[in-house]
Recover the amino acids of this structure.
């Protein structure tokens, strides 16, 4: 909208600290305030690196980023099977390897809920007779820890995957990328929430021995699942696909209903119907598959991994494949916790699920899901503002993921680490909150503001790499 | 928002016809235009009736309307069975009776698509060997026509119901009201779209002999379906529940998935999954059930029936039970038609589905479904504006149906015929468009602006009734 009359009457423009504006307006002047902060928190080293990445290397990075985003957008990840993890993930063919969420970590630094999940996975595999023995094997290295992200696997929250677990196999035919994620365990006492009791292990058996094989048969019979096709529909049904994917999950269940009935698979149908988060790990595997298509685009500052293990948070860039940039994981902010719990009880931010934000959904698409904003006390306008803020750190808007609440505009896609470092705006991840020590599992939900340091470190490394090459 | 500067500079305020404003602004003056129209189109008789209904009878009508809306809002319609229509609808126990949408009508005036559906229903029942014989029986009165609304039945579009068809049985335990609607036939060649060929009749056999009994078993096994509970969720998933109810239908399918699998009901599951409008008639039966709870509240100007048969449109008020107020059915406006068809091909507005708007959803809740507005070229703001406009003719906002896109506000509920008559704002019904003569069925979709005359006639009758009593 035009506001010529207002602009003509402005006598001062204030950048940054509001106290100056207040002083002026107290004297009767009309002041336009601009929310300005010094770039990169005023750090001269980072400013110098950013200056090169926008200046001397600017064209090259821009081209590389356009290429990286085009690869992400072109990927059409389809679930082509549900399989035993040990049969499809190379690293799990070795004996006694467990995958976990987040960057690499030694057992000593693993947070409490992830420890409980790893121990339970070892018991589930039959590697140890009891949990004490399992913990000893993890401590002495006879069970090996590997970050899932280094093996095409992404897991929610504690993100543990062991060879006998059932995983979605999601592939992009054109680029040849493949990614995996465990079948979501659902609510209650489960490994993803850091609960490792007998009930959680029993559910893993149902998933691996019953639901997994049934889903595998269904996919063979009904054809592969076009994950992002369902996601695009779900975005117009109140889902942003990270905190909330139940409409999208119901679209999948609709597609599977005939096959489930034909198979007489009552227990499987009831499990799918009773798990609001069932679609989550399918979205994650598809997002990982699409992100992998961008890995290795030289010079690109597009983020291809954002991942947390409850101790550290790590980032990777398309232009620096395999290199982790790490800082301490965030405390979850603005959390709504169950009665009887306080912020002091909460584990730090955890899970591989932020891969979702790397492809333009989840926190990027909050405008699609005002009910998620409402959960945290916001409204539709707040949800829209959140998406617009995320647009400030992204390369472009998605062609395939569109927001009916934003006039059909595409979601922001392609997080540019330069913009994150410069603006100090980090991706916001709405996420569950786990108990930090007592093993009760999820105690709430909140917003994890990712640390800016890994993005700044990644920018520094990319500037160095490009300086060498020029 | 405050606009003090603007208001201070206004030198003239223009009410009504814009030509005066244009004349002033051409002379350089700033003019604030107000979209004003004389009440009731300036009709002195209607103005006099309205004056009594807001004045002398105002308190009584207000109390009655509050009571009527409270009854609508308190109703908790649940699908308790799917049954053979002839077993549950008294009028269909008689031989050779057919129900149809809209107000009462003689065969001679029945529109082409409804004729085709009635003829096909007679063939389906085996009352006639061929369509010509069936048409003769309808013409000579050996098959009797009854408006569904007079027997607790509401049907979409042509709205035909015959004794052997399967109907949802939806009941409100507290008020004791019960309503019925046929199982939705889905897309393609079907009676509801005015297509009466052999394929359409064959589908009726599947619905009555296979899907109906299976759904009846499922309800017995899984329990009654809380229709408005699902609707309330669906409103946060992009459905307004008239043009679009697929998210809500998927919620139902999710609830039924286990039972369908247990029954091995593959064909039924595939039919439900393939019919985006499956939930429509469940919403309609529930809306009729809730509206019936308000029928007979003396003095109430709340609309309890809005219904069209492609020839006439009819209205009933809570305070004048059983009395029809009728005018010619509207031509559907702003229609998007399939290639090769023009407005001249279109049948007039048809169907009982506007019962949905009587309980605060459908057109009342367009803000929930910006994608429906987008279908007609609008956006989220247009959808919100539409709901706000409907709020001008309603008694209050719903406590149970809430709009996350409107800050959690309730949908407008309880259409007050006084407000419709006074403001000349009639409910907008987004609806399908049928071919008017050649039997091809649906040729598009559009918006039916309901005629104001039946609302004015109803207001006149209510004023007369209250004058007598006072």
């Amino acid at each position: 909208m035009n506001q010529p009359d207002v602009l003509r009457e402005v006598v001062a423009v204030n950048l940054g600290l509001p106290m100056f504006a207040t002083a002026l307006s107290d004297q009767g002047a009309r002041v336009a305030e601009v929310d300005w902060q010094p770039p990169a928190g005023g750090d001269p080293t980072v400013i110098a690196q950013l200056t090169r990445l926008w200046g001397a290397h600017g064209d090259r990075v821009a081209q590389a980023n356009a290429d990286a985003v085009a690869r992400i957008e072109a990927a059409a990840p389809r679930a082509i099977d549900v399989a035993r993890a040990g049969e499809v993930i190379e690293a799990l063919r070795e004996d006694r390897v467990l995958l976990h969420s987040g960057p690499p970590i030694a057992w000593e630094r693993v947070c409490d809920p992830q420890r409980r999940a790893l121990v339970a996975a070892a018991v589930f595999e039959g590697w140890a007779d009891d949990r004490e023995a399992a913990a000893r094997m993890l401590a002495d290295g006879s069970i090996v820890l590997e970050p899932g992200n280094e093996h095409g696997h992404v897991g929610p929250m504690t993100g543990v995957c062991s060879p006998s677990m059932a995983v979605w196999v999601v592939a992009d035919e054109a680029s040849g990328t493949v990614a995996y994620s465990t079948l979501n365990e659902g609510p209650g006492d489960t490994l993803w929430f850091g609960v490792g009791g007998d009930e959680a292990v029993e559910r893993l058996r149902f998933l691996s021995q019953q639901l997994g094989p049934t889903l595998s048969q269904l996919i063979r019979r009904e054809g592969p699942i076009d994950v992002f096709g369902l996601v695009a529909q779900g975005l117009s049904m109140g889902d942003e696909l990270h905190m909330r994917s139940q409409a999208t999950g119901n679209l999948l269940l609709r597609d599977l209903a005939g096959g489930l009935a034909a198979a007489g698979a009552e227990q499987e149908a009831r499990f799918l119907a009773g798990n609001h988060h069932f679609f989550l790990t399918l979205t994650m595997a598809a997002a990982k598959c699409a992100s992998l298509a961008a890995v290795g685009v030289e010079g690109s500052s597009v983020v291809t991994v954002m991942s947390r293990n409850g101790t550290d948070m790590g980032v990777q860039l398309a232009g620096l494949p395999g290199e982790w940039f790490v800082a301490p994981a965030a405390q979850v902010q603005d959390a709504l916790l169950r009665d009887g719990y306080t912020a002091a009880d909460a584990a730090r931010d955890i899970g591989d699920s932020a891969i979702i934000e790397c492809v333009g959904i989840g926190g990027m698409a909050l405008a699609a899901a005002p009910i998620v904003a409402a959960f945290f006390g916001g409204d539709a306008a707040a949800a829209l503002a959140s998406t617009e803020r995320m647009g400030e750190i992204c390369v472009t808007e998605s062609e395939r993921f569109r927001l009916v609440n934003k006039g059909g505009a595409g979601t922001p896609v392609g997080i540019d680490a330069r913009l994150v470092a410069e603006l100090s705006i980090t991706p916001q991840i709405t996420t569950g909150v786990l108990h930090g020590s007592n093993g009760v599992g999820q105690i709430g939900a909140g917003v994890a503001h990712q640390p800016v340091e890994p993005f700044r470190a990644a920018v520094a490394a990319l500037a160095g790499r490009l300086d060498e090459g020029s």
Q: What stands out?
A: Chain A has 16 helices and 17 strands.
